[in-house]
């Protein structure tokens, strides 16, 4: 883990950023696609538009460790295939570093009949249990033993059985895990109350393009026909653009840009945020794959309320950047974080920067704006709040230091270089 940090000279509220910023492939689409490689034949799979970030590298390391070859090249293409016998246990040290490691449990159990893994790590934004995974695997005929924070799951006879699984809570990675596992199970698997995030649809579309039988895309019920290992027909399936990165750039643009074009995004995935930004008065030209923001000196933002929700509702991963926007908007806005109970703690740091935020409880805050922000020394607590701190640093007057650059690097590729190109005064200091 690097100890790098960012130093930002803030704009003090000026709207002067300009140029073009391109959105990269989505982290949360790349990781399940990569995990699905386990259920393919010896030729393996390949993807393009994979971001060069810490989490995709961790996924490569974990795959290599279990017996897959997984190489990400400098053009953003990853090629993954099985090199030898698969190991059924996930390396604890790597798995503890990112939550998406849990997706590997599905394909590994389906392929080898056994999986041993530690409780997955990831951002500290709430309890993040894995009960949905355990319950689902039991329904598919597996036996689960738990020792401390380590799990061993086995299927007698080696094959998972198709099952009807109702998720008591919509979960992105649980939906992805059981879609993949269901494809090697015996018979039909019906998943009810699934999450519907675009990353799940992208995974299903890829699997279907390789012959998988999955129906119910973009709905909360997915039906999966179990069968044989899959075969990728056309190479380099392209990862969808990162809607969270696009949304964060959009918020930065609304706050600090004179003339900013965000390219290579899918605006149909951003409806909820775009709706709020229109309500706030942001002037945008919206194409299918770009958004152009033009602000004048007089452009003022109006506050709005946010309630995070599963897709297509307001994404919890955009909640922190949106709070920065509310600190600069006229009026009062409430933020109701419904997905994770620890995901508003970062707002204390915005208060230190000069924001007026009342914490009503661990799920709800009130933001009163606009208030000028002052540069500060901050510790990035997780991937998304880390980028929000960078945005707050750019808005603020004076210098900010954002420690724990590693968290930002987990989700965003060379962020400082891309922000410098649109006029942000940000540098990385090697720690
Ligand atoms: N939950 C359970 N039991 C489970 C699994 C989840 O109660 O077994 C609960 C969670 O505690 C949470 C809710 O279900 O309250 C939804 O969590 P979900 O499982 O959907 O989250 P996740 O799959 O762990 C993914 C993203 C997160 C994103 C959430 C919500 C990936 C790799 N991660 O996490 O992204 O915040 O969905 O949209 O896809 C990030 O990228 O920085 C990030 C945290």
Polypeptide structure, described:
With 431 residues, the protein is α+β, with helices and mostly antiparallel strands. Helices cover 30% and strands 25% of the residues. It is built from 14 helices and 23 strands. Strands 21-22-1-23 form a 4-stranded mixed sheet. It has a 4-stranded mixed sheet with strand order 2-14-16-15, covered by helices on one side. A hairpin with a 2-residue loop joins β7 and β8. α1 runs parallel beside α2, α6 runs parallel beside α7 and α10 packs parallel to α12. The radius of gyration is 22 Å and the shape is elongated. Bound molecules: uridine-diphosphate-2(N-acetylglucosaminyl) butyric acid (EPU).
Compact description:
The protein has 431 residues and is of the alpha+beta class.
- Cα-to-Cα separation, first versus last residue: 10 Å
Which hetero ligands occur in this complex?
uridine-diphosphate-2(N-acetylglucosaminyl) butyric acid
Oligomer: single chain
Spans of 5+ residues with little confidence (pLDDT < 50)?
none
- Strand count, sense and closure of the main sheet? 4 strands, mixed
Give the strand order, joined by hyphens, for the main sheet.
21-22-1-23
Q: Please give the number of β-strands.
A: 23
Report the β-strand fraction as a percent range: 15-25%
* Count, helices: 14
Structural class: alpha+beta
Spell out the key features of this protein.
431 residues, alpha+beta, binds uridine-diphosphate-2(N-acetylglucosaminyl) butyric acid
């Amino acid at each position: 883990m690097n100890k790098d940090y960012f130093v930002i000279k803030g704009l003090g509220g000026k709207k002067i950023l300009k140029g073009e910023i391109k959105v990269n492939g989505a982290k949360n689409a790349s990781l399940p696609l990569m995990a699905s490689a386990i259920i393919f034949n010896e030729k393996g799979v390949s993807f393009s538009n994979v971001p060069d970030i810490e989490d995709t590298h961790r996924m490569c390391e974990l795959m290599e460790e279990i017996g897959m070859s997984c190489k990400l090249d400098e053009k953003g293409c990853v090629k993954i295939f099985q090199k030898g016998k698969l190991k059924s246990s996930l390396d604890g040290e790597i798995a503890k570093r990112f939550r998406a490691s849990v997706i590997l449990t599905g394909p590994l159990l389906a392929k080898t009949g056994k999986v041993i893994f530690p409780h997955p790590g990831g951002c500290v934004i709430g309890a993040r249990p894995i009960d949905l995974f355990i319950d689902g695997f039991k329904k598919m005929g597996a036996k689960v033993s738990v020792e401390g924070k380590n799990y061993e799951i086995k299927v007698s006879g080696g094959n998972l059985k198709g099952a009807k699984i109702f998720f008591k809570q919509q979960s992105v990675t649980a939906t992805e895990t059981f879609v993949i596992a269901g494809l090697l199970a015996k018979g039909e698997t019906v998943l009810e109350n699934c999450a519907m995030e675009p990353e799940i649809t992208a995974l299903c579309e890829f699997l279907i393009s390789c012959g998988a039988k999955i129906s119910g895309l973009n709905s909360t019920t997915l039906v999966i026909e179990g069968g044989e290992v899959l075969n990728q027909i056309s190479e380099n399936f392209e990862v969808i653009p990162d809607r969270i990165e696009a949304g964060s750039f959009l918020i930065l643009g609304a706050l600090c840009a004179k003339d900013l074009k965000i390219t290579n995004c899918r605006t149909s995935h951003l409806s909820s945020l775009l709706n709020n930004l229109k309500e706030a008065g942001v002037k945008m030209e919206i194409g299918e794959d770009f958004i152009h923001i033009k602000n004048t000196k007089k452009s003022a933002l109006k506050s709005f309320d946010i309630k995070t929700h599963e897709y297509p509702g307001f994404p919890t991963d955009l909640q922190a950047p949106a709070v920065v926007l509310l600190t600069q908007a006229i009026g009062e806005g409430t933020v109701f974080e419904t997905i994770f109970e620890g995901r508003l703690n970062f707002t204390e740091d915005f208060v230190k920067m000069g924001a007026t935020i009342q914490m009503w409880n661990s799920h709800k805050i009130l933001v009163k704006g606009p208030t000028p922000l002052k540069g500060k020394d901050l510790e990035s607590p997780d991937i998304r709040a880390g980028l929000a701190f960078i945005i707050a640093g750019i808005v603020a007057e004076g210098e900010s230091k954002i420690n724990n650059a590693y968290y930002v690097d987990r989700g965003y590729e060379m962020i400082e270089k891309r922000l410098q190109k649109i006029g942000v005064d940000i540098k990385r200091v090697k720690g």
